[in-house]
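note to self — DONT lose this again. spent like an hour looking for the file last time. sequence + predicted structure for the chain T wanted, 260 res
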Amino acid sequence: MLLVADVGNTNTKIGVYDGPRLVNSWRMTSRREQTADEYGLVIETFLQTRGIRVAAIHGIAISNVVPPVQQTLEWMCEQYFGRAAFFVDPGVNTRMPLLVDAPREVGADRYVDAFAAAAKYGAPLIVIDFGTATTFNCVSARGEFIGGAIAPGIATSVDALVNRAARLARVELVRPKEAIGRNTTTNLQSGAIYGYAGLVDGLVDRMRSEMGGTTRVIATGGNAGLIADVARCVERVDEHLRLDGLRMLYEEAHPPDPQR
């Protein structure tokens, strides 16, 4: 079995694959001060709750956008699983062309999203990841990562507004029935949901025109469900896109031995 981990600024998503099949996935809070033992014990517990033995894990693939925990993750893999992990490093151990000014600055998360979406749905396309930040990742018709955009995530934006406005309080991020809010709560919800959908549609329209026409739009990330039904441009939500990408990248980097 293959263990995959997507380490983000807010959450870490763990998955286990048996061949191409995702057996189980879990989500945990990302903490920069978390130790190798804490990571190892939590992941061991996840596996045990589904009857998966640590010895059954034959490989590990990780995308990490939090540099301070890199060494911690390396130690955890060696101490708890007895093997070195495959860390996605765009421009170093990847093959999708990166047609941007600074290829080494492309985040592993963005690369995995673009690679997985191109492999699963074909290019050209735009992958939108709704997380702590909302990233727009563009893949050309030739299968090249050509850049995109980074916007504050929807929850990040609302938190920033509430923290700066004394008379506003946090609200549940749900879609209100109408765009015209009748109270403070629905005003905030309308601005967050419908306003953010307008941001997404407007930016995708501009990107599509620069890419020369129609492109598919795939959404992923923890907050994709909030916007996917409101933004007109989103064609499909793929909840496990990044985990699938990690599996595909690992398999590409570790082809089976034909003599075995």
